[in-house]
Structure formats: C-alpha cells, structure tokens
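Morning. Coffee machine broken again, so started the prediction first thing and wrote up yesterday's gels while waiting. Chain of 162 residues, entered below exactly as on the submission form.
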Amino acid sequence: MDEQTAAAKKTILRTIPYGLYVLGVNHGGEDSAACINWVTQTSFDPPLVVMGVKKDSGAYALLKQGGKFALSFLESGQKDLAFAFFKPTSVEGNTINGAEFERGEHSNAPVITATPAFIEGNYVGEVEIGDHSCVVGQVTNAVLKRGYEILTLKECGVNYGG
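Came back before lunch.
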C-alpha cells in the first residue's frame, strides 16, 4: 500500500463511530476488565454481539477459559472511568481499577456500578485473524439502569483504528 493510500485508509477508518465499554470476565475466582471499543450487534435471533478483544490481554485469556462475560456500557462524561481500564486489572475489595463493581447474575463477571447499562453473555465463537480477536457472544441478560448517550472515542479525543 503506498503512503497516500495508507493515509486515506487511516483517515477513513477513523471516521467509524466507536462507543466505549468495559469488558468484565471472571474465571476460577480471577477477575479481569478492559476498556474496549469495537462492539456491534450482529444478530437479533439469537441476540449476538461481536467484540474486538486484544489477544494478548488478560480479559481475552479469562474469557476463553470461562466462556462468560459482562459488558458495561459507558455513558457520555465517563472518560476518566474509560481510561482507568486502559491499564492492567487491579482488584481491591469491591473495586476494580478503582471503580466500584458488582457481579453479573448470569456471568459472575465484574459489572461497573456507575455505568448506565450492561449486558451479559456467553462466548459462542470467534475469528482470530489479526491482533484482536472478533469474539462472538450470545446475550443472556440485559440491565438498563437509566437512559444515556454512549461515551465515544471522539468525545475522549482518542483515535484507535486505521
């Protein structure tokens, strides 16, 4: 790919709107949580989502082992909360990376208490091409605490893609 084409690709792919989410997983009493931004719904029946998850992350490893997840949806204004999950997981009591959490009823995974909504699901497959795996999860539970606008990468002033 020549330089002009590479620059155009980067610019174009960065115009895709990306929400921010915290992927929580638990397996064998170990918790992990990571901020992710590549999420989309791919099926109504059954309800499926696809998540881009870094293959070298602790969250990915635990998800593959345990097969269940919770996805906390961050709302506009929760930039600091998002950035807390761009680093390795640290659990102290009922906080994870400094944020209070509860356990998902179906997944036992950490759910960030301050977020307006979350889903839980089961790992059902993936496409492992590239540095992120396209993980497919079937939604098993959904909780809406309040209405919200999703926090976006654009609001955070961050580009992740291209």
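The first strand starts at residue 21 and ends at 27. Going to sketch it on the whiteboard this afternoon.
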